[in-house]
Amino acid sequence: MYLVDYHTHSSYFSPDAASTMEEMCEAAIAKGVRELAFTEHCDVNGWNGIPCDFDEELYITALDRVKEEYGDRLTVVYGLELGQPTQNSGLAKRYLSSPGLDFIIGSLHNLRGMEDFYLLEYPDMDTCRALMERYFAELREMIGYGGFDVLGHISYPLRYIRGRAGIEFDFSEYTAELSDIFRLLAASGLGIELNTSGLRQPVGQTMPAPDIVRLYRECGGEIITLGSDAHTAGDVGAGISEGIAVLKDAGFKYFTVYKGRKASFVKI
Ligand SMILES: [Zn+2]
Ligand SMILES: [Zn+2]
C-alpha cells in the first residue's frame, strides 16, 4: 500500500506542534510513509490575537534542508494550511501565490469575529445549528475565493460538538447543503481532504465522516487527499490506511497527491 500523509505540523513553524521537521521525517520513513507534506499553520487572520507573521522564505529554506537530508528516502511535499483566507484576503493572496509550494489546504478554524471552534461552548442543539449554518456559509465564501487545493477537515466543529460537548449532532439534516457545497467544489476544480485525526480523538471518526465522503463522491468529487494532522512524530501516518479503506468504501479508486500545485492520482 502506497502511504502518504498530506497534513502534518512541525514545531519549527506551527506553535501547537511538538516535534521537529527531522523527527517528523524520521517517523514517516520508519512507518513506510512515502510522501510527507508539511502543512504548517498560516492563519492569516492571526492566531490567539497575534497577527500572522508566517515567513514563507524561511519556511522554504527549512524544507529544502530536510529534503536534502531525507529526500532519497521520502518525498517531502511543501505544503501549507492556510487558515481563514477570506478573513484577511489580501494577506491570503500573498501566500496563495507564494512560489515553491506544492500543496495548500484551505481551512476554517474560526468563524469571522469568533474564536476557534475548539474554544467555543456548545450548550445546546440550537447553538450548534446556528454555528453550523454560519460554518457552511463561510465554507461557501472560501470556495468562491478559491486559490487553495483542498478544503481542510470539513466538519471540524463536530470534533468539539460531538467529541467534547457530547451532543449527538450530525450532518443528516444538511445533506442538501453539503451536496451543494460539494458540487461547487467540483465545479471549481477544488477538492477536500480526509483528515484522520478524529480517529484518535474522542469524536472517533474521520473528518468528514465516511457517509459524507460517500456523498462527496456522489456529487462528483474526485480530488481527495489523506492527512493525519499530526502535531507530533508519533502521529505521523496515523489512520492513513483506515482512511484509504474509507475512500474505497465510498467508491474512490484513487487518492490525490500534489507537486508544484498540480494534482495527480494514486491508485488505491
Ligand atoms: Zn486545521
Ligand atoms: Zn492542521
Per DSSP E runs of 2 or more residues, the count of β-strands stands at: 9
User: Which structural class is indicated by helix and strand composition?
Assistant: alpha/beta
Question: Which strand order spans the largest sheet, edge to edge or round the barrel?
Answer: 1-2-3-4-5-6-7
**How would you sum up the major sheet?**
7 strands, parallel
How would you state the average pLDDT, rounded?
96
Identify low-pLDDT runs. Answer: none
The small molecules bound here are: zinc ion
Second-tier CATH architecture: Alpha-Beta Barrel
CATH superfamily descriptor: Metal-dependent hydrolases
Question: What Rg, in angstroms, do the CA atoms define?
Answer: 17 Å
Spatial gap, N to C terminus: 8 Å
Provide structural commentary.
The protein has 8 helices and 9 strands. The protein has 268 residues and is α/β, with parallel strands linked by helices. It has a single domain, classed as Alpha-Beta Barrel (TIM Barrel), CATH 3.20.20.140. A 7-stranded parallel beta sheet has the order 1-2-3-4-5-6-7, covered by helices on one side. Strands 8-9 form a two-stranded antiparallel sheet. α4 packs parallel to α6. The longest helix is centred in the middle third of the chain and has 21 residues. The radius of gyration is 17 Å and the shape is globular. It starts with a strand and ends with a strand. One zinc ion (ZN) binds next to loops.
How are the SSEs placed, and which strands pair?
Elements: E1 3-8, H1 21-30, E2 33-43, H2 56-70, E3 75-83, H3 89-96, E4 103-107, H4 125-145, E5 150-151, H5 156-161, H6 175-187, E6 191-195, H7 210-218, E7 224-227, H8 240-249, E8 254-259, E9 262-267
Parallel strand pairs: 1-2, 2-3, 3-4, 4-5, 5-6, 6-7
Antiparallel strand pairs: 8-9
